[in-house]
């Protein structure tokens, strides 16, 4: 409550841009007899949304459990730049006593992790997660999606600086996923969020940085665009009206074009030496040929394609 007795929604202070990393690990290892997590070194800046991706069994949940203190590493170090009381965790499947109401469940979490917070923080957490209208309902009647949002409300009630989410959208329908992603994205710059997901499009949509795990090892950590630029060949799909032969012939003669092929009738795939060369060269090429351009868009310029290129997995393995 503020001085006038009005409810105040959770709005943590913005993270100073000069602040150092909030999470750092070095050589982090948890070995379950040849599977687990091996020599993982992370560096997570403050105030960002960090997406952790990998196939089932890649080590995502193990890594999040180590960061949250639920498991102990066999070796390696973990440095968390805030007190443990400022870290909140939301598992992929939250469980609650069915006779509790949503408000009682969140208030129980508040009493355990933030007893100095007032009851207004409970209402604020329910409002933030879209459960305000269900505050008086028994949890036993909740759908899995509502239960997942309730777990997030319990994590937010203490207003954490670092929020760790394990598969936060896995139980939600498309509308619920979009709402959850919007809530997570809105935390950027105010708190740090580390979340895992097997839905790569969700990670690409909101993550500032991404970490890619395979077989318990960190293959990549860094920016999304850098990942795509590094592991994908710059390519574009160009659809023109009429016969594409002249455009294909002209494209094959360009020094910046590394490969030209017909993907479908009227659809040309052009690969280039660099992104800039293609972005400048393809439109100039079309204009020079006097062709009628129908569409011009990047090919495979997404996280899923970069993930497959980096890990060597086939597309069906990511679904």
Task: Pick out its properties.
four-stranded antiparallel β-sheet, 14 strands, elongated, six-stranded mixed β-sheet, 319 residues, disordered N terminus, 10 helices, alpha/beta
Terminal CA distance = 45 Å
Supply Rg: 24 Å
The low-pLDDT segments are 1-18
Query: What letter string, H or E per element, gives the SSE order?
Result: EEEEHEEHHHEHEHEEHEHEEHEH
Main β-sheet, spatial strand arrangement: 6-7-8-4-9-10
Total beta strand runs: 14
Strand content: 25-35%
Please provide a written account of the structure.
By secondary structure, this protein is of the alpha/beta class. It has helices spanning 60-68, 102-113, 120-128, 144-156, 174-186, 200-206, 224-231, 245-252, 275-289, 303-311, and strands at 23-31, 36-40, 43-44, 49-53, 75-80, 87-90, 162-166, 192-196, 209-214, 217-223, 235-241, 257-264, 267-272, 292-298. The strands form three sheets. Strands 6-7-8-4-9-10 form a six-stranded mixed beta sheet, with helices on both faces. The relative contact order is 0.14.
Short summary of the structure?
It is built from 10 helices and 14 strands.
Give the helix/strand layout.
Layout: E1 23-31, E2 36-40, E3 43-44, E4 49-53, H1 60-68, E5 75-80, E6 87-90, H2 102-113, H3 120-128, H4 144-156, E7 162-166, H5 174-186, E8 192-196, H6 200-206, E9 209-214, E10 217-223, H7 224-231, E11 235-241, H8 245-252, E12 257-264, E13 267-272, H9 275-289, E14 292-298, H10 303-311
Parallel strand pairs: 4-8, 4-9, 6-7, 7-8
Antiparallel strand pairs: 1-2, 1-3, 1-5, 9-10, 11-13, 11-14, 12-13
């Amino acid at each position: 409550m503020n001085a006038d007795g009005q409810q105040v929604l959770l709005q943590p202070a913005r993270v100073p841009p000069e602040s150092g990393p909030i999470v750092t690990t070095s050589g982090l290892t948890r070995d379950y007899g040849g599977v687990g997590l091996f020599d993982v070194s992370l560096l997570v800046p403050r105030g960002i949304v960090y997406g952790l991706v990998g196939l089932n069994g890649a080590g995502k949940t193990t890594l999040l459990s180590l960061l949250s203190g639920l498991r102990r590493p066999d070796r390696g170090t973990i440095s968390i730049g805030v007190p443990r009381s400022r870290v909140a965790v939301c598992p992929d499947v939250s469980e609650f006593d069915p006779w509790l109401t949503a408000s009682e469940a969140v208030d129980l979490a508040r009493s355990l992790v933030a007893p100095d917070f007032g009851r207004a923080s409970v209402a604020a957490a329910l409002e933030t997660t879209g459960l305000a209208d269900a505050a008086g309902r028994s949890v036993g009647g909740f759908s899995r999606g509502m239960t997942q949002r309730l777990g997030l409300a319990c994590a937010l009630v203490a207003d954490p600086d670092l929020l760790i989410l394990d598969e936060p959208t896995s139980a939600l329908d498309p509308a619920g996923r979009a709402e959850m992603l919007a809530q997570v994205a809105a935390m950027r710059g105010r708190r740090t969020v580390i979340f895992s997901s097997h839905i790569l499009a969700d990670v690409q949509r909101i993550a500032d940085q991404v970490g890619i795990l395979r077989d318990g090892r960190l293959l990549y950590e860094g920016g999304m665009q850098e990942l795509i630029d590094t592991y994908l060949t710059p390519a574009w799909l160009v659809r023109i009206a009429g016969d594409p032969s002249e455009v294909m012939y002209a494209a094959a003669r360009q020094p910046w074009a590394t490969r030209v092929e017909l993907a479908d009738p009227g659809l040309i795939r052009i690969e280039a030496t660099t992104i800039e060369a293609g972005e400048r060269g393809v439109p100039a090429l079309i204009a020079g040929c006097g062709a009628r351009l129908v569409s011009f868009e990047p090919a495979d310029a997404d996280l899923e394609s970069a993930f497959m290129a980096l890990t060597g997995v086939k597309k069906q393995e990511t679904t």
